[in-house]
């Protein structure tokens, strides 16, 4: 099995990375920084997002594994004291690993500016904001005008990303088995003159949305952790991507257990105190 490790860069994560290399060598695993089978992220969710974008062109044959070295990461299954168990399972599961991979949907983000179009992919979300003033834009669904948006911005998330910024905006948590994107508003303006739906919207795989700018101003876009400032933005087209991201699962960790662990915790079981 060929592997690659990305560390967050702090002392704990770097020491864990060196220990991983040692254990992997003892177990007959091969380090490959260019075309690995498994990418191991050591740090938090931000580190895994970096790993995802680094290997974006290799998603068809790569799976990701997360080890968290701080607060529990939503994408991280493993703790530092479980490192030896993880490496052993990885080395023993080279052939069977295909049956232990789960796939999560991605967002395809097509940005139109300056007469050109550029495509990005998001694991968590894409956000759009006015850099200097209120965002004024048409929100179109499947080519038809749905609403005229005025407010701070718009967040479009994947199902796995629904637990991130989307959740703080009041959006729903969506299971990754549902191939969909979610549109959530950031502080929309709603009065007798301006009106939006005021709630998040789920679009299935065969639908798309387009955000068409109505005012001429610099726009600030994020694709996961990547900031993009566009001075001549015309529109953004978003839909569920054809490709998916794969995660290697060497032990069961159901999605709703992951959500509970991240946001509720095992101590809150509903029993009387």
TrEMBL record:
Matching InterPro entries: ATP-NAD_kinase_N (IPR017438), ATP-NAD_kinase_PpnK-typ_C (IPR017437), NAD/diacylglycerol_kinase_sf (IPR016064), NADK (IPR002504)
Keywords: ATP-binding, Cytoplasm, Kinase, NAD, NADP, Nucleotide-binding, Transferase
Chief site of localization: cytoplasm
Entry EC number(s): 2.7.1.23
Keyword Membrane among UniProt keywords: no
Cofactor (UniProt): a divalent metal cation
Subcellular location: Cytoplasm
Active site: 45
UniProt-listed PANTHER family: NAD KINASE
Family: Belongs to the NAD kinase family.
NCBIfam families, per the entry: PRK04885.1
Name of the featured protein: NAD kinase
Gene: nadK
């Amino acid at each position: 099995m060929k592997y690659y490790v990305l560390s967050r860069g702090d002392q704990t994560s770097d020491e864990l990375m060196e220990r991983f290399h040692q254990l992997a060598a003892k177990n007959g695993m091969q380090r490959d920084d260019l075309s690995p089978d498994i990418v191991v992220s050591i740090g938090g969710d931000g580190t895994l997002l970096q790993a995802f974008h680094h290997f974006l062109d290799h998603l068809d044959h790569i799976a990701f594994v997360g080890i968290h070295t701080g607060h529990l990461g939503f994408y991280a299954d493993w703790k530092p004291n479980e490192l030896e168990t993880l490496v052993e399972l990885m080395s023993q599961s080279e052939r069977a690993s295909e049956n232990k991979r789960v796939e999560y949907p991605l967002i395809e983000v097509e940005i139109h500016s300056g007469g050109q179009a550029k495509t990005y992919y998001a694991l968590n979300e894409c956000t759009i904001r006015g850099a200097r003033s209120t965002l004024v834009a048409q929100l179109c669904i499947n080519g038809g005008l749905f609403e005229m948006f005025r407010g701070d911005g718009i967040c479009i998330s994947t199902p796995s990303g629904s637990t991130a910024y989307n959740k703080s905006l009041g959006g729903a948590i969506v299971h990754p088995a549902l191939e969909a994107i979610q549109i959530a508003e950031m502080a929309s303006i709603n009065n007798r003159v301006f009106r939006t739906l005021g709630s998040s919207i789920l679009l299935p795989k065969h639908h798309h949305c387009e955000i068409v700018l109505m005012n001429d101003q610099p726009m600030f876009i994020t694709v996961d952790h990547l900031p993009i400032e566009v001075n001549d933005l015309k529109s953004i087209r978003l839909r569920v991507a054809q490709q998916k991201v794969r995660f290697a699962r060497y032990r069961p960790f159901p999605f709703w257990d992951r959500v509970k662990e991240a946001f509720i915790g095992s101590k809150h079981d509903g029993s009387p105190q």
